[in-house]
Design goal:
The complex is a heterodimer of chains A (168) and B (296). Chain A is mainly alpha-helical. Chain A is built from six helices and no strands. Classes of the chains: A mainly alpha (168), B alpha+beta (296).
């Protein structure tokens, strides 16, 4: 419960960075999806059920802050958070490998879902252009940021584990 | 390093139920937030009341970092550019004398054609941008004034001397603005000289390399249009006040149907670095809009 609060606050912090500071650090016109990277790192450390709820809460916050209709981002983030069950048994020691596979894959899934739910349903078919101008740069930038974010979140997780063991 | 113990390593039954439950909750939220947009406004206000100060602070940091990044990016270029500019300056001073003379002539002609019916007489309020939309797909931003400051949905937003966007959601102390370059923004415009109408549409596929351009379509094929023509908001639009400059036509070609023409428009507003905007506190057809909104 406390870990949920910590991880949610951390992710909310990421959302703010994304909306403000990173707007001036944009590369090739895109901003990295920090919130997604944060959700993926926390879910990997704490299991997919944790990811499910954290993803839902994060998506809900993003919906309330940035969108007229509430629930779409919550659905996307929740799905990505729970998909972590596919890889949570694999142990990644190097942040680079984790970032390249999990965060890269997560970003791709997020973008595809976002494209289908927001653009394809409005009849926007130019997937190739979107892929080259948004999806691919966003994925690469998010992977890059994920390499830095993963050790930080791992450290938070281990720090909290000490308290957990002490209580037991 | 010891191997971590995991309590839930498979997609357990309980997780499945939670997932299905939350998916249903999302679907319900989608429906209710769409149907009863106004009831959700107080929830959003509460969230914004908590997060707005934080966002403001972050946006200030953004400005500082932006300056530093700019500094490193441009230092080398600036030295080379300075040399080049010095030589150009000599040349331009000579040309300037000629142009000044022509400028006076132009001013006289403008007064004659009464082209100065600009938007100086609309009541305006300044607001600060506090956050951009985090997703790379849409172009919306949040400003720090809301309904308590007299703003409401449908008000036009200017930046510099051109149209920037329209308020599409209004909380007590914040408003969200949809920029005209947003994929999904439609503005009816007309050409300043000839009064030909056209549709100005934001399109994500047009946004490349920091150079933003809008798509212009549905121009009558017989229209006498040249590139560089100024496009302003039209009297026909039901959301935008007439006569606000949108931008200049950069290219135009006849469509496949041979009945209409379409082209591109370069906006006068620099969307890459918005910090303060002006909101026109006057809504077009406000009574009609009110009755539409209170319909739910």
């Amino acid at each position: 419960m406390i870990m949920m609060l910590i991880s949610f606050l951390f992710t909310a912090f990421c959302i703010f960075l994304q909306g403000t500071v990173f707007q001036s650090l944009a590369l090739a016109g895109v901003v990295p999806n920090l919130a997604l990277a944060s959700v993926l790192c926390f879910s990997y450390q704490r299991g997919h059920r944790f990811g499910l709820i954290l993803g839902f809460l994060t998506g809900l916050l993003m919906d309330i802050l940035f969108s007229t209709i509430i629930g779409l981002d919550a659905l996307i983030f929740m799905t990505i958070g729970v998909l972590i069950f596919l890889i949570e048994r694999i142990e990644f020691r190097n942040p680079l490998y984790f970032s390249l596979t999990v965060i890269g894959g997560g970003s791709l899934i997020y973008s595809l879902l976002y494209y289908v739910l927001h653009f394809l349903l409005r009849g926007k078919m130019a997937f190739g252009t979107y892929f080259v101008t948004i999806i691919l740069p966003e994925m690469l930038y998010t992977v890059l940021v994920g390499v830095i974010l993963f050790p930080i979140i791992r450290a938070i997780h281990r720090w909290y584990q000490k308290f957990e063991f002490r209580e037991e | 390093m010891r191997r971590r113990k995991r309590k839930f390593s498979r997609f357990t039954i309980r997780s499945k139920y939670i997932f299905i439950l939350l998916t249903l909750l999302c679907a319900l939220l989608l429906f209710f937030s769409y149907r009863y947009q106004r009831r959700f406004a107080s929830v959003k206000d509460a969230v914004y009341a908590v997060f707005e100060p934080a966002e403001k602070a972050f946006y200030n940091v953004k400005g500082f970092i932006g300056q530093k990044v700019q500094y490193f990016k441009e230092k080398g270029d600036l030295i080379a550019e300075n040399e080049q500019l010095k030589s150009e300056l000599e040349e331009k001073t000579a040309q300037n004398t000629v142009l000044l003379q022509e400028k006076y002539e132009l001013e006289d002609l403008r007064a004659l054609f009464e082209l100065d019916q600009t938007y100086g007489d609309y009541p305006k309020v300044a607001a600060r941008v506090i956050s951009r939309n985090t997703s790379n797909w849409y172009d919306m931003f949040v400003i720090d004034k809301g309904s308590e400051d007299g703003l409401s949905v449908g008000m036009n937003v200017l930046a510099g001397n051109g149209l920037c966007g329209i308020i599409n959601e209004c909380g007590a102390h914040y408003s969200r603005v949809r920029a005209i370059i947003d994929d999904g923004s439609y503005v009816t415009g007309n050409f300043q000289g000839t009064k030909e109408t056209c549709l100005v549409r934001g399109d994500l596929t047009e946004t490349e390399e920091g150079l933003l351009s809008l798509e212009v379509s549905l121009i009558d094929k017989d229209a006498d249009i040249k590139t560089g023509a100024a496009i302003v908001t039209s009297q026909l639009s039901d959301q935008f006040l007439p006569g606000i400059l949108i931008g200049y036509l950069t290219d135009v070609k006849v469509d496949a149907s041979t009945l209409t023409m379409s082209g591109h428009l370069s906006p006068v507003v620099d969307f890459s670095d918005l910090t303060t905007v002006l909101v026109i506190t006057e809504v077009k057809n406000s009574e009609e809009l009110e009755s539409m909104l209170s319909g739910d």
